[in-house]
Amino acid sequence: MDLTRVRQDFPFFQKKPDQKTGAYFDNACQTLRPRQVIEAVTRYYQESSACSGRSMHHLAAEVTRQYDQARATLARFLGAAKKEEIVFTRNTTEGINLVAHALDWNAGDVVLLTDKEHNSNLIPWQMLARRAGVELRVVPSRPDNTFDMDAYSRLLDRKVRLVSFGFTSNLDGVTLPAAEIIKKAHQVGALVLLDAAQTAPHQRIHVRALDVDFLALSGHKMLGPSGTGVLYGKYALLEKLQPFQVGGDTVASSTYTTCEFLPPPEKFEAGLQDYAGIIGLGVAAQYLMNLGFDAIQKQEWLLNRALTSQLLEIPGLHLIGPSDPALRGGIVSFFIEGIDSHRIALMLDQMAGVMVRSGQHCVHSWFHARQIAGCVRASMYFYNTLDEVSLLVDSLKKIRKVL
Amino acid sequence: MLCIVSFIVLSILGIFSASNRQLAREALDCVLRRVTLRPCNTGFDEKIKAKILGVVITRSEAGARFLNRHFELLSWVAFFLLLGSSVMAVRGVYLFYVTGSCNGLNNSAFCVFDPTGQNNQVSTLGQTCSLSDNPERGVTLKNVDLSDWPVLNAGASNQIVMVGCYACDYTRKVYPSIRALVQKYRPEFRFGEYQVKEQTDLLTRVGYCVYHADPEKYWAMNDVLFTTEKANLDDPSYVHQLLASLGLDANQIETCASDPQTQTRVEKLLNEIRRTNFPGTPTIFINGVPMVGPKPYRVYAIQLEGLFYWMK
Ligand SMILES: Cc1ncc(COP(=O)(O)O)c(C=O)c1O
Question: ipTM, 2 decimals?
Answer without folding.
Answer: 0.76
